Amino acid sequence: MIYIATLLLAAATATVPSPAPRPQLPTVPNVAPGYGSPAVSPPPPAVVGVTQQPFVGITLDNAIGMALSRNPDLAIAQANRHIAQYQIEAAKGAYDINFNIEPQYQYVEQAPQNAFFAGPNFGPIIQRNAALSAGAQGILPGGQQYSVSASGKQTYDNTSINTFNPYYPTIFSVNFSQPLGRGRSITQESRQLQLAQIGQESSTAQTLSTVSSTIAQVQNTYWDLVAAWRNVAIQEQALLDTIAQQHSNVRLARRGAAAPIDVVQVNAQTAVFEQQVFSALQNVALLQNQLKSQLTDNPNDSIWNANLVPTSPVLQLPSQPSLADLVTQAVRNRPEIAQVRDQIRSANVNAAFALNQIKPQVNLQLGYTSNGFAGQVTPPGSFFQSSAQQVIAINQLIAAVNQTLPPAQQIPALPNSNTPVPSYLTGGLDQSIKNLLSNKFPVYTAGVLVSFPIGNHTAKADLATAVEQQRIAQIQEANTIQHVTIDVRNALQAYQSALAQLTAASAARQASEQVLASEQRRFRAGESTTFLVLQREIELADNRGRELQAQTSLNKSVVELQRATGTILTANNVNVTTVGEGALNP
Known about the structure:
single chain; disordered N terminus
């Protein structure tokens, strides 16, 4: 009794809670008077813009093949690969042999200046030159420079003092330069070739990266479309189950075994499931358009009229992978890492070139020239004839005088200026070439060119810049490897989570099916209510949707695991030389 009295006293003295205060609400204006849903018939349950029947099945392999062939991004990536290859050819052009040939004709007529520089009978000096020169020059990968040239010429010159007219000078010349300091191990030309080759490999890696992303996008869209179509089936099944319940309630209501409100309650849920069917069908249309846009760049492609239905089974699950093995695969296969390592290679080439430019320029220069000459001997002019006769007459007088003088006092004879022309100089162009080939008039040259700037600030600054670029590339490599490692860790975690979620979702769906069946049996036995049956139907539809989403997530997690480890390319047999070839040409 004392205990009860104590409880009553406590209840009497307890604080009675006060009601919540009425909130201050905003004033709502009269918005769109008469607003309401229009009285229209529902549209047909169809995907807009496609032929509804028959359905067009598409496998995942076919979808990937079409995307790799017709995707415009891949077509651009492929074009960039071709450009990179052309850049290699352009860089090789530095080692092309530059051949030149130059025929030339010249006619010159000059006024006579004196008896020596005049034509016959003090006439004008006439010169005619017909020449042909040819040569080749270039550089070698080691930085050596070479040139080879040859020329032949016919000259007609009527000057009175000429011994030959016409005459034929010929020249053959070879020059070679070997760098001993700057430019010996690497030159600007070899640097550009190496960078072009690295650029081509980097462009290929970029293409593979685009291919990886494209395949992953197509696969994800494909599995989303699978889920979308299956979700339509789930929502339709839920709608059919609810309609069946509505029919059952109608029969019970007619017998007086159920209240009419139970029919209304089921009708409300039927309308909800019908809305969800149309919503699911809209998602199918959106995903079909998304997939089609990934498969073709042609708006007139017949695929836009197809009602696509995925036909491939779920992806095969990989064996239980270890994180360390997956990271090793990713570092070996990911094109992003290949790209950043190409950047390191480019930085190393630039650093080697910059270091080489610090050296002084020391070039060994060698040259050889062979000259040929021949001509037609001209008869001596009147001046030379009279001079020769005078020399003969004087020598005759000297000889007569020397007969009267002792040997020590004898007068030496004047030299004969009319020495015969050697036979090897007499002839035409063929004789001149023969003299050239027999090396009768050679010229040999050898020298060393040494050049270096005082201070060499430009080369030192370029070297410091190249070293910093090396450091940046190494930092980027480490950062890329870290990001790739994180990708792999996240992908593996997502795969394991999706696998666990699918297991749980499958168990929940199976349990929901059993609960609904039990609830329906109880309802038919009069031991349950319409509300509980509808709740079980809703729960079953939700759990079916969760299981479908879990299966889709698992498929997509396998795709992400392949992408993260770089195995998505080999898994889909990618041929980088053919991707993008089917894209629409402008």
